[in-house]
TrEMBL record:
Family the UniProt entry places it in: Belongs to the PPR family. P subfamily.
This protein's UniProt keywords: Repeat
Record-linked InterPro entries: PPR_P_subfamily, PPR_rpt, TPR-like_helical_dom_sf
PROSITE patterns in alphabetical order: PPR
SUPFAM superfamilies, per the entry: HCP-like (SSF81901)
Renumbered ranges of PPR repeats: 95-129, 130-164, 165-199, 200-234, 235-269, 270-304, 305-339, 340-374, 375-409, 410-444, 445-479
One Pfam family from the record: PPR_2
Name of the protein in its database record: Pentatricopeptide repeat-containing protein
Repeat among keywords: yes
């Protein structure tokens, strides 16, 4: 037996062989064993000790029990924690903390109904309503997509006279934003201030992120200034969110000013800061500045990741600089970074747009040899290149290969194929794809409808063109006057 295990063995042997002279002494020994097993990272042994303690008719204090519960849940042993919790009922004085820890474990495992039942049980047993319990459950409901349940819990806690705290309000705001209820989220912010609950850093971060997503930088900066007034210090994440908001709107100079302000306040740019700004420069066509910033990033000891290189390669591709893209790709590999699906797709797209389908397909084959599976977007890029070349034979083969792999075509892929067949004058193929697209619950775009209608009119199939115009109108799209003129001309020619 290893020396480190001897104390456990001796104590356990003593408990089994010696009569219990004083329950308090034995209880203390069990608590020592449980704590020791926790310190030695032995979750199952710790749980076994607590089980033996209960069998001996001894009652562990809530602090010991709660510590063990947390330890078991952290070790991903929910089933053991649940079993112990069930056995401990009516035998251990479980407190609000015990129920809260168990609820959090159930929520993390996605067992929201069980967590909710535990909350009901706690309150039915006379436990006072607890803000932390409600906030935990509301947070997990929002994150798991059960926003309606979260809303009911939020209303229920207020109905019980329980005032939500800044964390409760923030998780509800985040849930509103995540589920598309932006105005409701901002209403909660106003309510929060009205009832005297002060927003924290996380609250402001959630609100500013939503403003930037809605491209409302004016209100984002109003909130940013409010943070300063209330002495809530912005962190790197807050600055990154605002810098990204500027870059998304192409306001790169404002993003640069904010970076200087961030540094002036003693905050170091993070990897995300650099990636966002490099992406902003690339989108603005300032590829030289993007490369310069990446070099600064390396000089300051911040190593570029695969995301950084993907952003830069995409920038070179957008600028039609295939040499620059290839150099960035080589540097990435030299640094020991493995290309991802995104990397390959960006490069394939660059070659396809450069009308070099041979190189595009070589990269596609390299991607498959590397064990990476092409997704719908990768196939879409290749199909776009083939359709633009008028190579509909290979485009159709690739489309079928994609379907055989179980990948669902996007509406953009259908529209591109319809465009390709219409350019070839194949109304039969184009119409078939439109029908398939509608059957799959997608709506062709205006260009697809109009091209197909023109080809049908040209082929003298004005009845089918008329049917397609009606479908177009039913889908909420309006044909232009020229389409009606072509239909009228087709009717006159072929009657």
């Amino acid at each position: 037996m290893p020396p480190m295990h001897r104390p456990f063995f001796l104590v356990q042997r003593m408990i089994k062989t010696q009569p219990i002279l004083h329950p308090a002494t034995t209880s203390l020994i069990f608590r020592f064993l449980i704590d020791a097993h926790i310190q030695c990272q032995n979750p199952r042994s710790a749980a076994l000790c607590l089980d033996q303690m209960l069998r001996c008719g001894l009652t562990p204090p809530p602090t010991t029990f709660n510590r063990l519960l947390r330890f078991l849940l952290a070790a991903d042993l929910l089933h053991i924690a649940s079993s112990l919790f069930g056995d401990a009922k009516n035998r251990v004085p479980l407190d609000a903390n015990s129920f809260g820890v168990m609820m959090r474990g159930l929520c993390d495992a996605g067992l929201l109904d069980e967590a909710s039942r535990l909350l009901d049980e706690f309150e039915a047993g006379g436990g006072p309503p607890n803000v932390v319990m409600y906030t935990t459950l509301i947070d997990r409901c929002c994150k798991r997509g059960s926003f309606a349940v979260a809303q009911r819990l939020f209303d229920r806690m207020k109905g019980l006279g329980l005032l939500p705290n800044e964390f409760t309000y923030t998780v509800m705001m985040s849930g509103c934003f995540r589920n598309g209820f932006s105005s409701a989220g901002f209403d909660l912010y106003e309510e929060m201030k009205r009832v005297g609950v002060f927003p924290n850093l996380y609250t402001y971060s959630v609100l500013i992120s939503e403003c930037c997503k809605n491209q409302d930088l004016g209100f984002a900066f109003k909130l940013f200034d409010e943070m300063t007034e209330k002495e809530v210090l912005p962190n790197v994440v807050t600055y990154n969110t605002l810098i990204n908001g500027f870059c998304t709107q192409g306001k790169i100079k404002d993003a640069e000013k904010l970076l200087l302000r961030m540094k002036g306040n003693g905050l170091k740019p993070s990897l995300v800061t650099y990636n966002v700004l490099i992406g902003g420069y690339c989108k603005a066509g300032k590829i030289v500045k993007a490369v310069s910033l990446m070099n600064q990033m390396k000089e300051r000891g911040c190593s570029p990741t695969i995301i950084t290189y993907n952003v830069l390669i995409s920038g070179f591709s957008r600028a039609r600089d295939l040499v620059g893209a290839a150099n960035a790709y080589r540097e990435m590999k030299d640094r020991g970074l493995t290309p991802t699906n995104v990397t390959y797709t960006i490069l394939i797209d660059a070659f396809a747009k450069g009308n070099d389908m041979e190189s595009a397909f070589r990269l596609y084959q390299s991607m498959e040899r590397a064990g990476l599976q092409a997704d719908a977007y990768t196939y879409g890029v290749l199909l776009h290149g083939l359709c633009m070349q008028g190579n509909m034979k290979d485009a159709w083969k690739l489309f079928e290969k994609m379907a055989n792999k179980g990948l669902k075509p996007t509406s953009a892929i259908y529209d591109m194929l319809i465009y390709g067949y219409c350019r070839q004058g194949s109304s039969y193929r184009a119409l078939g794809l439109i029908r398939e697209m509608i059957g799959n619950g997608m709506a062709p775009n205006v260009a697809s409808y109009c091209l197909a209608i023109r080809i049908l009119c040209k082929d003298g199939k004005w009845q089918e063109a008329e049917v397609l115009i009606n479908k177009m109108i039913m889908s909420g799209l309006q044909p232009g006057e020229c389409i009606y003129e072509e239909l009228s001309s087709a009717k006159l020619r072929h009657r």
